[in-house]
Amino acid sequence: MIAVIDYKAGNLTSVVKALKYLGAETQVTQDPEVVRAAAKVVLPGVGHFQSTQLLADLGLTDAVRESVAKGAWFLGICVGLQWLFAGSTEAPEVAGLGHFAGMCERFPASFEGPELKSPHVGWNSLEEVRADSKLLREVQEGGFVYYTHSWRAPVINATAAVTNYGGAFTGVVERENVMGVQFHPEKSSAVGLQVLKNFVEL
Questions:
Q1: Contact predicate 4/28, CB 8 Å
Q2: 157 exposed, middle or buried (CB, 10 Å; 0-12, 13-18, 19+)?
Q3: pLDDT above 90: residue 61
Q4: Catalytic one among 93, 141, 184, 201?
């Protein structure tokens, strides 16, 4: 069973619809015990990083830590990916999970040149796709996915693919059983569906 966490900020309907299309059994929940018991956990996300404070308030942050520690698969989407890092300058007072080092910063954080349009909205390609990535199995270098975000995660050792927009940022992060995608797989046509299919089949 895949527990899909509801923290009142995720695009739950489209994510759940895509997972069900792929044959997955899902349960939308705010219950830490459901998260602890799940074989897989998905954290969708749209909007402000501040919304992730509810995860701590409901005891879901600790539940995710325990779930991941015992080997459950975890997938964060958009703000859900950013939450895996230490935090975000969008809401500096709100701590992320801290599973990956580094802070998420706003475009263009380190870009010298004309001001970029922000948010970064639309189709962009995945580059430097890591060959050993379970989440990106059968995803081709240069595959296009759909983004809508104003903050980006840094490129780190666990980055499984980057996207370039005012410099490279983490499009996909993956280390063992913890994964995240900055793009919206449920809106990313064939590539997005392949990513979700790979997660469902783990």
A1: yes
A2: exposed
A3: yes
A4: 184
* Half-sphere CA count of 109, side-chain side, radius 13 A: 18
Residue type, 45: G
Number of structural domains (the chain) is: 1
pLDDT-derived band at 134 (thresholds 50, 70, 90) equals very high
Instruction: Answer yes or no: is pLDDT of 86 > 80.
Output: yes
The residue from 48, 66, 186, 201 that is catalytic is 186
Residue 69: CATH number of its domain: 3.40.50.880
> What is d(CA 131, CA 167) in angstroms, rounded to the nearest whole number?
22
Predicted local confidence at residue 105, as pLDDT: 95
- Stated as kind and residue range, the H or E segment containing 122 is strand 120-125
Q: Is 184 a catalytic residue?
A: yes
Active-site option among 66, 78, 99, 112: 78
Structural domain including 166 reads 2-200
Dihedral Cα 137, 143, 145, 151, nearest 10 deg: 90
Structure tokens, 28: 């939308």
Active site residue 78: yes
